[in-house]
Amino acid sequence: MRGAAALLLGALALGTSSPARALDGDVMRNILSPVFLAQNLAAVCEKLDPDFARETGGRDGDAHQVIAHVKDHILAVMTREEAAPIVASAAGAARAVGLGMIRPLSGGSAEEQAGRLKALCEQTAKPLVRGVVDAHDQRHDFFEQMIRDARQARG
């Protein structure tokens, strides 16, 4: 799912276009939502495939470790008061998208449902999680600069 990686990269680019707007709630939600979605999908898919997090990881560890690192960096630029509504909104959006992806898989036997979920994990979740991880790994300097700009904007 290259669209999620493109969304993340686009949000990162938006976040650096104006340091004064670096903590804009919409931008921060756009950055965090795909990260939370990747986190949720990794958790679901790892139940079916114990190697999922390792296979979708990056240079800094498995998917869980990289996603936690990305979240920590993003949250570090915000105060608790700034972060609370942004995190709640981003997590809610990610949850809604994730449930929207999983709900249509119900129906039929347990084996049929598991097969559909496994296909979702392989065909959609794995590329999405890899996209979030790769976006961070391949553009780490850019990501770090965005964080520095955001910290300076808070001044």
Describe the structure.
Mean pLDDT is 82; it is low at 1-22. Helices cover 79% and strands 0% of the residues. The chain is an all-alpha fold and 155 residues long. It has helices spanning 2-16, 25-48, 52-55, 63-75, 80-102, 110-138, 140-154. It has one domain (2-154). The longest helix has 29 residues, at 110-138. The chain is globular and about 50 Å long. Keywords: Signal. Residues 1-22 form the signal peptide.
Oligomer: single chain
Largest sheet: none
Taken as a percent bin, the fraction of beta residues is under 5%
Q: Tally the beta strands.
A: 0
Using only CA atoms, what is the Rg?
16 Å
What are the secondary-structure elements, in order, as H or E? HHHHHHH
**What is the overall shape?**
globular
> How many domains, in number, for the residues?
1
N/C terminus separation:
37 Å
The SS-based structural class is: mainly alpha
Determine the fraction of residues in helical runs and give it as a percent range.
Answer: over 70%
Arithmetic mean of pLDDT: 82
Outline the low-pLDDT stretches.
Answer: 1-22
Number of H- or I-type helical stretches: 7
